[in-house]
Each structure stands twice: as structure tokens, then as C-alpha cells.
Amino acid sequence: MELTREIYWNVGHGLTTLVPMYLLTLVAVALLLHGFRARVKVYRQGKTAPRTDQLAVRIPAMLKSVLLQSKVARVKGPGLAHALFFGGFFLLFLGTCLIVVQADFTDLLFGVKFLKGNFYLLFSVVLDIAGLVAIVMLGGLLVRRYLVRPAGLESGADDLIMHGLLFAILISGFVIEGARMAVTELGTSLALWSPVGLVFAKGLAGYSEETLRAVHSYTWWCHLLLVMAFIVAIPFTKFKHIFTTSLNYLFADIGPTGKLVSLDLEDEEAESFGASTITDLTWKDIFDTDACTQCKRCQDRCPAHNTEKPLSPMKLINQLGDVAFNNPEAGLVEACDKDAIWSCTTCRACQDICPAAIEHVNKIVDMRRNLVLMEGEFPGEEVMVAMENTEVNGNPLGIGYASRGDWAENLGIKTLAEDPQVDILYFVGCYASFDKRNIKIATAFIKLCQAAGIKVGILGKEEKCCGEPMRKMGNEYLYQTLAAENVELIKGYGVKQIVTSCPHCFNTLNKDYRDFDFDIPVTNYSVYLQQLLQSGQLKLNSAEFACTYHDSCYLGRHNDLYDAPRQLLEAAGGQIVEMNKSRSEAFCCSAGGGRIMAEESLGSRINVKRVEMAVATGAPTLVSNCPFCLTMFEDGVKGADVEDRLSARDISEILVERL
Amino acid sequence: MKALLVAENRDGKLLASSYELVAFAQQLGADSSMFLVGSENALPQYDGTLYLADSGKHSEYNPAVHKQLLLEVIAKEQPDLVVFSHSSYGWDLAPRVAVALGAAQVSEVVEVVEGAMVVPTCNAKLRRQINVKTGKTVVSLQSGAFCLSEDPSGTPIVEKIDTETASQIVFEGYEEAEAGGVDLSKAEVIVSAGRGIGKPENMPIIEGLAKALKGEYGASRPVVDSDWVDHGRQVGSTGQTVSPKLYVACGISGAIQHLAGMKKSEYIVAINTDKDAPIGEIADVLIVADLKEFVPLMTAKLLA
Amino acid sequence: MKILVCIKQVPDMESKFKIADDATWYDSKDLAWRMNEYDEYAVEQAVQLRTQVEDSDLTVLCIGPQRVQETMKKALAMGCDRGVHIDDDNSFQKDPFEIASMIAEFAKDKSFDMIFTGMQSQDRGSAQVGLMAGEMLSLPSISTVVDFTFEDGKVTAKRELEGGIKAKVSCSAPALVTCQLGLNTPRYPTLPNIMKAKRKELLTLSVADLLKVDSTQETTKIYFPEKRSGGLVLEGAAGDLADKLIQILKENTGVLA
């Protein structure tokens, strides 16, 4: 017996099958294209964005994300189920393609058959198992969605249509196979190579061949129609994510991570800055809204959402989509709600986890830019005061600029104005310069460098705020003013290497300042100290202690620096008890996105929530790497009433005690 | 030296600050007379001539009329100094009189050193000594800077004055302070609670001290976060920025966010068990004590 | 309607103050400069009135050295139409009477319908200039205003008195008001307005043209007050501490008077 099967068995391979089949396919694909063409028109309302460059990077990244479902599968459970379902369904799709290729092209035109022999056996068993996996995973997802629904997962008509169609297609496929096998394969060894089909065949075995043939033919045409319906439904339902999400991997931001696009403020033609209507966003921003599958992963991780603030990154993306598709004249800020826009801490938890590579943060900043630059609006008067303080004194705290370097008196270091010949420039930042608690970070860092024989210089009163909080709050003008001044100053001293202790300064100098023709290397202190430790220049007297470690958003998700600080802590004798949410899943301290300048008047306190997570580890010390985090945790420890159980410290303070 | 003291009346009552003018004249050894737009029913305890105009007729705020009345008395008395309180009444009337007299005006005098008047400058960070070049001088005194060493006494010789000057400004009445709403930025005294108060039940002792000092109470962010105090009373960079004459920080360690909101206060007292708390760096006085013991005692002594 | 708003550039009060060599003023080195806070309220109110009354023209006037033009730019960005800079490197030595007379000299033939000033400056704190200028121009003037409305040529304002009490007064324009903190919320200039401000007319006048009076007073000495009890740390029994503190408050603050 030949190891193959007759394609188009029972339904026939004549024109009466092929003509309606291909006509239907043609119509379905035409409707699909028509559906997407309408969507493309909507995307094109947006401004241009360079997201089709560097294809050599983009295409492999896309293939990895699509075929390996690498982003989707990051969340165990539903993510894995989706990945397996996708795998199964994709194999079935490939199998169907092979059948079409053989039956309607190679065999028809050249008499070449390849679905035979061992390859056929492999083909048969793989597709059978793929179908089974798809059915089981789909069933699991269905149970999750409709029976044990997790909070926040919303289901609509789309979800019902999708689950129904997919189930019907998969089951009908097996019914067709079962009916065919009941007639042609039952009892042969070949049948064993279609194990799932065999089960269906056995179930149908009692019926007459005539009935089986009728069932087969009827189900075959139904299956065909279901598949056509599926194709047509793609652009009109959430099925569209098959294309939009996949393409979004191609158009994804390929870095540097979280770098905002600098506005051209000198543009005489510009009538408006930031985003107030849909045409102020880029086509990619609009495309993002179409790539969202409402999986709510972003919402689950959003620190604002988790503390009862009116922001859900998912909802915001959907609201923008609604404006783009249904109400393009509407104002974006009104559609998304001002309070939601101001609530974001730009922690990137949403963007990092998004399986569709959607960029939430830049849209929020764009809307903030419009509010600040065009309306002079802020989340509160205290933020406006901080902006004005920064304009006058170069720091949001409003402390006289001339005392910026006072903390360094008696530490044996000089400003670059006094002596520009240094190994590194330490860019101190506002909090470590002015805040008594955070000055301990700056002091510790200097002592560590001195112990390692590094000559450090600072800018003293010439240093200004890096501008990060202002920029994230939407004040691009103030940011660019500060950046230009800092860049000119630093370049003037011929600095070779910059080290920062504030991750916000680090991110800004190392990424954002690059738009200002600034190419001096910038390192974060944790990495720098870790290098000194490795090279043997820095020696620590390890002494055991237990702690938990908080990944600041701007060192972690924004810069992927998770290990250097942990290695430092371990070298110091630290036994790190990780919090549930750590590394790329770390929960924000509340101070990012310029929120350090703002009152947290909505919902509960983010910092208190994070402190409670730290307390839950049982470790007596919460170590962080960021002045903003430290400030928030000092408050949070009091707010959570755990002063007797937890103390907040910076990594440098731990290290300097072990010199 | 002759001084004309411009006493003040509000809502039918003589303001106690009027006696500070007497203390100033005494300190300079000046002969004085007094001017008041007020009422016969609320005369100052003062030995000397009192030029009294009827506030019922001339209203309690009418700069043009009050200026005219005052200029007539000045013409008669020919004083070297015309002395006001640096109050909403004094600082409004004094410059008008100074312009009319072509005289120098020295505002908010806090002391007199070797005959030179001293005024605060730059939020009281600095002080200036003033040399006056004109024959007559208009002066306004900082509230509380000059005090009588004993209780005021005496009976004035009342000389009634009147004028028929027309005024371009119409006084339409007083508006009471809004109840409920707290604008800490205007408070002269603020007593603030930090986490050092321990528990919400201790808030009344803070409020008690605020009341005894005729001020308002406020709180640091952690206290507000814990819902021990209403959000509207938060002092700090994310709350209200305040600059009272006296700020009493009770159990506040002095996080930067808090300091940013209150460091402009003219005088800062901190009460803390921790001698090294950062608040100590900007406090004029740091009382190292348990506030739960100290504050009620202080309140009791103030009210005694 | 023609409106004038007078502003002053002052050092930021958070600056590290130092005494200048001749000890009659503070050293201008290491100071950050900004618009006098009270004047920000004046500018805001003037801009609001300019918007309220059609065909208005709003002039901002400032006396001081070249650097005050930076502060004037902010007023222009907030919505003033034109700037007048009275260029004076020695403005810090001018007393309130002289400053007021320069403003009056400038304004006397310009028929301004409304003049706004701050209630006082943050550095000198004299609270004289606005009212003096009003007197010199024979305008009705209202000081310490925390509420302002303008309708059909009539100004209605609330003056802030002590203890939160307000006095409601009214007069007809032309008039002058001096603005107290809390009168409004000064706006944050928008980017397009910042850009426009760079191109707005800024006229420079010399002191000699406007100063027609002699000074009435001079600062002979400026100094830091003795740190009366600065950084004083008191420890001991609570009762004694309370007595000591009451004594200190009596000596150093006016609040127990």
C-alpha cells in the first residue's frame, strides 16, 4: 500500500470543486484586502516615522517574535497556551498550503507528488498532533476567558466569534479526516499515523459508506466556508492582530530603549507641538492601536493602575484607536482623560511586557507635551513651581544654584573649573547635590572612587538638572535648554568619561543628549563600580547581610542593567531575597515620568505598595540604586508604618561601609 | 523730636498694634501725639493729644479721606516722624502721605541702631540701615518689633477733626475670612506635624499649640499619606509652600520635599528627639525633646 | 484700552547672598534672577484684562541693568505686547520715591487706563512704589489686591487685610492696583508665546530722561542679622525648655506680642 492519501477524496478534483473553491478564496482574500485598505487609510492620518529602515535588524526580530512567540510566551499560562495554539494552527496552515501546492500545481501541471512515503507519514502525524494541541490550547484559553476569567479581562463579540470560528474549523477538520479514514484507512497501519483522525474515524465507524461520504462532503464544504469566513473576518475582528501585531514587530522601536524623539522647537512652520489630535501622532502610533489585543498585561503591571489611578495603558491605546477610526476630529487629551495622562510614571512596565510591541509611553509624553507647550498646563501648581525653580536655579527643588557643589566640600575633590584633569566627571544630579539624605550617595560614591584611586571631578554650581523629569512631564523646551547648556559645558572641559549615580541622569545623558552632538561615554555608577571591583582596583571587605533589591525603572527596564548592581551587593556580602516583582517585572517607586515633582493625589500610594512588597520578603533592608527611589522609599517606609522592620538604603551606602 | 502716631481701628475696635507706635516713640525719646480714624467708644489708653476722626463718617478704609485728615494734623503738629504700623492700613496710607510731604518713607522698621532705622531685606535674610535725607520721615513699624514694657495706660486729650474731601475710592464693606478652607501660605504661624507624632490620636496636641500661637496647623507628606491630616494641610514641595513668621516643626525629620516647602519661614523651631535630624540644619532652634511631653506643656504655658 | 504693568527683577530668595565690598548692598555674584513674585500676579492680571477688553495694548515696564530684559521676556511671553526697559545699572541704589517718580514720569502723558504693580518687591519689601506712582499720577490706587474685576470702566477689588478679612472697594478707571500673592494663578508661558516674545518690541530708555527728583534716603549699611539663636540646640527638662522657647520667641519673633 502506498503511504499517501488521495487529495480531494470524495469531493472530487474537477471544476465543480475547484472553481467554487478558488472563487470563494478570491472573494475572501479580496474582502480581506479591502478591509485592510480601509485601515491603512486610517494609519496614514499619522505623521511619518522612520520604521522601515534597518530591515536586516527588523526582519529577523519580527520572525523571532512571530514564529517563536517570544514576547507572547513571556507570561506563562495564557502566553504559553497562545504560543502553542499559534504553533498548531500555523502548522495546519502550512500543511494545507502543501496540499494545495501538490494537488493544484505540482501534480496538476507536472505530475509531481511529494506527499508520499515517509514524508507523508511525518506530515500526517505532525498535522494531527498540531490540530490536537491547537484544540486543547484553545479550549484552555476559552475556559480562562469565559469560566475563570481573571480581573480586567474584557470579552466582546469579537472574542466569541474568534473562539467559535477557530473551534469549528479545527473540529470540522478532524471530522473530515475521520470520515475519510473511516472509509479508506480504518484497519490499515497507515491510520496509526493519524492518531487523532483515527479517534474520529472510530467514532464514525458504524455508519454506512454512503452516510460517511455525505458527512464528509458536507463537512468539507462547511470547513471551506468557515475558513473563508475566517479570512474575511480578519480585518474586521481582533483576528486582525495576526497581521497587525506581526507587522508591529517589524515596525517596532529598535532603540535605544525608551529614547524620545526630540522636537524641533525652532521649526517656524510648526503651529502646534506635541499631540492634540490624531494627526499629531505618527502612523506607527495609530498602527499600535490596531495591534492591541487587549490582553491587559500592561494594565496588570501599571503602577498607576494598581494604585487606583485612572490610567490603564491598554485603555489609553484603545481610546486613541477609537479616535483614529471613529472620531478623528476629537481631542486626544479629552479622549484619554487628563488625569490618566498625568498619572504615568514612564516606568515602561507596560511597554516592556506588551506582546504586541506597542509603545505607550511616547504617546503619553506627546500628549503631555501638547498640554505643557501649547496650554501651559501641568498636573498641579506644584509642578509648575518646580519648572520655574528649574528655570531659575537649575533644579526642581528651587535651592540656590550656587550651593549645588557644597556637599563636596571637605571631600578632597575639585570642580572641573578648578581642575579639568580628571579620570571621570561625576554628574551628580539634583537630589544627590541638595538633599541631605541623598548627599550620602554622592559622598559614598566619591569615597569608593578615591579608595580605588580614581580622580573624580564635579561641575559644582555649573551643573544643571539633566532635564529628565521636565522632559517626561512634557516640557521639551525646558529640557532642551538644560541639555544644551550641560552639553556645551561638559564638552568645553574635554571630559573623557562621565559617571552618574542617578539612573535618570544616566538615561538622559547616555541616550537623549546624543541628539545634541554629545558623544562622551556615560556609565552608571553600579556598572562603573562593578568594573573597578572586577579589575581589582576596588576592594571590599565582605560582611554578610540580608536585603532585598529594587530595580529602578531607569536602570532596569530602560537600560537592562539588572546584574551589575546585584553582583556588587553579593560582593559586599549581600544575601538578596528577591521581591515577587523584580528585574524586568519590577514595580515602580512612583517618582518617574516627572512625578517626583508632583503630588500623588489620586488613588493610593505607589511607594507604599512597593515598600510593602519589600517587607514581604522579610529582609530588613531595601536597597535601591536611584535617588528618586530612595526618596520615595524613605517616605514609603513611614507611610507603610514599617520603620521598625525595613530601612531604605542606596547600594553605594552599603559598599562604602565595606571599604 | 516730634512723632505723630497713626493708630488703627477696625470694625469699631482699636487695634493693639497701636501701642507699638507708642513704644517706638518712647524708645526714641520723642514727644508724640496720636491720630485715629475711629470711635469715641474705643479710645486708646494714651497720655497725649489724640486727633480723632469719626470712622462712621469717613469709613474704615478710605485712603484719600484719611490722607487728607492726616495731612491737616501734620500741618498743625509739624512732626518729624509720622509713624504707622506696617499693616494693610499702614502700608497703604504711608506712601500716600510720604508723596504729599515729599518725605522719605522707611518701611517695616525692626529696630533703631544709633539713630538709624533698620529694615529687613530679602525675606529677612539681610538687614539694612537707612540714612534719611528729608526733613520729615514717614515710618512703618514691623508688627511686634516694638513693645511697651508695661501695660498701656492713660487718657487721651481728644481733639476731634473732620474734613469734606471727596474720594474716588468707595469702601463697600468687609468680607469675612472663609471658614474651612486653609491657605497656609498666608498663615503667620504654622505648627506642623511629622511622623514623629506617632499616631493620629496625637494630632490634637499639635492643633492645640497652633491655636495657642494663633496660627494654623499643617503636616508633612507621610502624615497626610497616612490620612492623619487632611491633604489640604500638607506642607512641602508637593503640598503648600509656606513662609510664616514662625514655623514649628514637630516630629519632622526634614525630608527635602518638606524643607522645600517651608524653608522660607522667617523663624523655624524644630521639636525632635533626634538631635541630628536634617531639620536641625535649617531650624533656628532645635528642641531635643519628646513632643508628646513638650508640646502640651508649651501650650499650657502659652495659655497661662 | 491702554494698560501698563510695572515689574522688577529680583534675586531668587534661595540664592546664597553675600555682602558687596562696600557693604551697602548685596553682591550680585552667584545670584539667580527672576521676576518679583508679586509682579507675576500683576502681569497675569494685566494679561487677563488685556484679553477681556478688546483692542487693548499692554506695556511692561522694568527698571534695571541689561539683564532685566530676560525677565521682561517672560512678561512678554505671558502676553504683554511691548516692553519698555529703563536701563539703569544703579537701579539698586534708587529709593522707592525715585523709582515711583520714573514710572510716573514715563506714564504721565501716555494716558494708561490701568496700571498694575506688585504689592512689594521681594528684596526691598518696601511696599511703596506702586502707591507712590499712583499718588504722583493722581490716580485712585488700591493696594494689596487679592481679587480684581473690571467692568464698564469700573474697577472692583478686594484688599487683603489681616486675619483673612478682606475689604471690598471700587473706583473708576484710570486707576492703579498693587497685587498681592494669591490674586490669580500666573500662567506658564506657552512655547509659541515664548517664541513670539523674542520678536516683540522692546524700547530702551535712559534714566536721565525720566529721573527728575532727588533721592530721599540711602542704605548706609547692609548686613546679615546676628544669628540670634541660629542653630541653637536646646536639651533638658521639658518644662525648662518650654520657658526658654517662649523667651526666645518673644525676643526673636513678633508672634507672641
Mean pLDDT of chain A: 95
Q: How is the quaternary structure best described? A: heterotrimer
Largest interface: B-C, 90 and 82 residues
Lateral arrangement of strands in the main beta sheet of chain A: 1-3-2-4-5
Number of strands of chain A: 9
Measured between the Cα atoms of the first and last residue of chain B, the distance is: 39 Å
Q: Write down the CATH topology of the largest domain in chain B.
A: Rossmann fold
Domain module tally of chain B = 2
Strand content of chain B: 25-35%
- What CATH calls the topology of the largest domain in chain A is Fumarate Reductase Cytochrome B subunit
Please write out the topology.
The complex is a heterotrimer of chains A (659), B (304) and C (257).
Chain A: H1 15-43, H2 55-67, H3 78-110, H4 117-146, H5 157-184, H6 195-204, H7 209-233, H8 241-251, H9 283-291, H10 297-301, H11 313-326, H12 332-336, H13 338-343, H14 349-353, H15 361-375, H16 381-393, E1 414-415, E2 424-427, H17 430-434, H18 436-451, E3 456-458, H19 468-472, H20 476-492, E4 498-500, H21 503-510, E5 522-524, H22 525-534, E6 545-549, H23 563-571, E7 574-576, H24 606-616, E8 621-624, H25 627-639, E9 647-650, H26 651-656
Parallel strand pairs in A: 1-3, 2-3, 2-4, 4-5, 6-7, 6-8, 8-9
Chain B: E1 2-6, E2 9-10, E3 13-14, H1 18-28, E4 31-38, E5 49-54, H2 55-58, H3 63-77, E6 81-85, H4 90-101, E7 104-109, E8 111-113, E9 116-121, E10 126-132, E11 137-141, E12 157-160, E13 170-175, E14 189-193, H5 203-212, E15 216-219, H6 221-225, E16 246-250, H7 256-262, E17 267-272, H8 279-282, E18 285-288, H9 291-303
Parallel strand pairs in B: 1-4, 1-6, 4-5, 5-12, 6-11, 7-11, 14-15, 14-16, 16-17, 17-18
Antiparallel strand pairs in B: 2-3, 8-9, 9-10
Chain C: E1 2-7, E2 9-11, E3 33-35, H1 37-52, E4 57-64, H2 68-78, E5 82-87, H3 96-107, E6 114-118, H4 129-136, E7 141-151, E8 154-160, E9 166-172, E10 175-179, H5 191-197, E11 202-206, H6 207-210, E12 217-223, E13 232-235, H7 238-252
Parallel strand pairs in C: 1-4, 1-6, 4-5, 5-11, 6-10, 7-10
Antiparallel strand pairs in C: 2-3, 7-8, 8-9
